[in-house]
Amino acid sequence: MQDWMGHHFGLIVPFYFAGLWVAICYFASFLSGWHLLSKRFQTKGEFHGPKRILQSADMRFNSRYNGCLTVGADSSGLFLVPLFIFRLGHPPLLVPWSEILTQRKKRFFGLMDVVELQLGRSEEVPLTINMKLAAWIEAAVGTDWPTGYPKATPSPPRLIG
Known about the structure:
Blueprint: H1 2-32, H2 34-41, E1 51-59, E2 63-74, E3 77-82, E4 93-95, E5 100-107, E6 112-119, E7 125-130, H3 131-141
Antiparallel strand pairs: 1-2, 2-3, 3-4, 5-6, 6-7
């Protein structure tokens, strides 16, 4: 067996790493809640609204999608899809605004403002984004931005004195 592995090591290694990559991508999909959301919000069509590439977001259980998301927004909803190499287990999502709640939060000991979007009324999967991306989404959708929580527009700076 060792002799066979020694001769075929170059063939085994790529299959090992490919299998590991598939397992990691699917595990991340289940952990983050993406798989749960895809059951109701998977989209097969092309998204034609405004999009921003290489965006970052956090999802549940501290799952981070750093610089690998394409985020789109229009009156139909919030569009999310990762870069091609991370797409296994992560089909494109289009979550309608009626299924999203927003809430401003503070992170890092209250020093950083973020916006948490709760995706899916029944799934309740959090998607945390920075204020800059939230303001862009809000501007792209206008009056369709989810109500019930404060808007994502950054508040004016406080004067100390």
